[in-house]
Amino acid sequence: MPLNEEEAVLLGAAWQRLAGGGPEAAAVGAELLDRWNEPHRRYHTLLHLWETLRAVDVLQGEAADADGVRYAVWFHDAVYEGRPGRDEEESAELAARLLELVGEEPARIGEVVRLVGVTATHRPEEWDADGKVVSDADLSVLAGPTDEYLAYTAAIRAEYRHIPDRVFRAGRSRVLRSLLDGPHVFHTAFGRAHWEARARVNMLAELDRLASSAPLDLPPP
């Protein structure tokens, strides 16, 4: 489901509050919005950006630098070609280049680059308050109602429609088991209290579907 008109306006306003209203900030914001709106995306879209930023709003009380986390969210999937690890690396490089144009301080830029890297593994260190927030915000979709979770899994499958079903099932199952095998899916106090149980139910149910022979939902191109 795409952003509605009101959400699109609010998303642009959120960038302006974060980066300012200067021409450089406007140009960087326009580039980011174009990237998030690329036609090959099915899940990693403007809607994912919007919902992840809203999750940061919920978790911001646990962040050391909530605006730094917001910058990391804007950049974390700005490069998305379905190449785990490499996409995050190139997104971090993009953040370093474009935030300098916006006029952010080197220390803030370095921290945003580091936080984008956290989204490649979703394994922040215990001391890393901002890493916990950016990781949990990115994974908050896992705790959605069943219909929203099924729409999410169908969109992920669509982004990998070029991958044979057998290969996709195996790869997706590894990702889910990696998250479930940790002591927690979520790292913030709020995430553990409010999202953990629902997310585990959703992921275990998805693993059951992946293990079956039933065709996976795949929307039209």
TrEMBL record:
Domain of life: Bacteria
Protein name: Metal-dependent phosphohydrolase
Lineage: Bacteria, Bacillati, Actinomycetota, Actinomycetes, Streptosporangiales
